[in-house]
Amino acid sequence: MKINFNRLFVLFVILAVGLAGCNMPRSDEAAEADVTQAYQTVAARLTEAATLTPPVTKTSAPTATTPVTTPTSRATAATPTAKATSAPTSQAKLCDQAAPGVPIDVTIPDDTKMQPGQAFTKTWRLQNTGTCTWTKDYSMAVFSGEAMGAPSVVQMPSSVAPGQAVDISVDLTAPNTAGTYQGNWKLRNKEGAWFGIGPGGSSPFWVRIVVSGSAATPSVTSSVGTPYPPDSTPAPGVLVSGSTSMLLLDRINFDTGLINTGAGEDLGYVVDGERLLLAPLGSALVAVHGSGTPSFSACQGSAFVNTPIRLRQQDPGTYLCYRTDQGLFGWVRLISLDADTGALSIEYLTWANP
Predict the structure, then answer these.
(1) Beta strand 275-280 with 98-105: parallel, antiparallel or unpaired?
(2) I need a surface site. Which of 26, 126, 147, 299 has the fewest CB within 10 A?
(3) Closest CA to 168 of 110, 111, 215, 98
(4) CA 302/CA 234 separation, integer angstroms
(5) Tens digits of per-residue pLDDT, 259-304?
(6) Which CATH superfamily is domain 98-211 in?
(7) What are residue 137's phi and psi, to 5 degrees?
(8) What are the residues whose beta carbons fall under 8 Å from the beta carbon of 89, sequence distance 6 or more?
(9) Which among 338, 280, 345, 292 is positioned nearest to 319, based on CA atoms?
(10) Per-domain residue ranges for the chain?
(11) What is the spatial distance between Cα 69 and Cα 75, in angstroms, rounded to a whole number?
C-alpha cells in the first residue's frame, strides 16, 4: 500500500492548527461575549426607544386638542343669549313708567320745616316716560311711610300722554310731635297696579318734612264723663251700623261700613312710634264724646278736630263722634284693644241725612 505523504502533511498541518486554536486563551471568548452583550444592550435601548415613541405621539394629540376645547368652554359660559332674552321683558313693562319732572318737588322740598299740625299742599311734577296714556282712571296713593292725613287715593287731574308731564297735588297735615316724617307715594294704573319712577318703575317719590316742637295729642279719655244736655231733637234714621275689627293701617268708610275700599274712607288706624292713633282722613272730622252713648244732636254739636286721637289700653268703652267726608254724623265705640296684635274692635253707627 502506497502512502501519500503529501496528503498526510496537509492533514497534519490542519490538525496542528486546530489544536492550537483549541488551546488559545479564554480571554477571547470573554471579549466575544462582551461584544455580544453590548449589542444586546444597544438592541434593548433601541427597543425601549421604539416603545417610547408612541406615547410621544399620543401626548402631542391632547396638546393639539386643548386649544379646541377652550373656545368651546368659553362659548358655553357666555351669557349674551340670556341678556338678549331679558330685553323684550323689560320693554314689555314700559307701558306704565314715570320719571321725575323738572323739578320733581314743585312745593315742599325735602326737609321743609313745619309746625305741629300744620296743613300744607304737596305738589310733584312727574313725566310719563311709558307707552301708555295716563287717563283719569290713574291715581296716586301712599305706598309706605307716613300718610300725614292723606286721602286714600288722589285721582290723576287730567290725561297725560307719553312724553308729557303733569303736576299732581295732595293736601297733607304735619304730625303733632317733633321729628322727621317721610311719606312714600306711587302711581296706580286703572287696574290698581303700582308703579313709580326710575328703572323698572320700582322707586317711590316722597314728601319729607321736619316737625319742630310738639302739640298736645288729644286722648280718647280726655273727655270721658263730659255731660251732655238731654236731646229733644228727634234723630234721623240710621244709614249704616255694625261692628268690626281694625288692624293697623286699616281705613274704614263710615258711610258704607267697608274697610280699605280705596275711596271715601273716614278714619284710619295708624301708629306713630309707640303710639296708636285714630286719624281722620280727607275732610272727615272726629271728637271725643265719653262713656255714654251720644245722641244725634250731641254728636252734631261736638267740637270736631281733624287731628289724630291717641288710643290707650283703658279706652275700651269710650265713644267718639265723627262727621264723615259726606257730611253725615255718627259715633264709634271702642270695644277692645288687643295688646299683643294691636287689633281694635269697634262698634259704629252713622245717621242718614235728617
Answers:
(1) unpaired
(2) 26
(3) 98
(4) 17
(5) 998 888 999 999 887 788 899 998 899 988 887 888 988 898 888 8
(6) Immunoglobulins (2.60.40.10)
(7) -80, -15
(8) none
(9) 292
(10) 98-211, 238-351
(11) 10
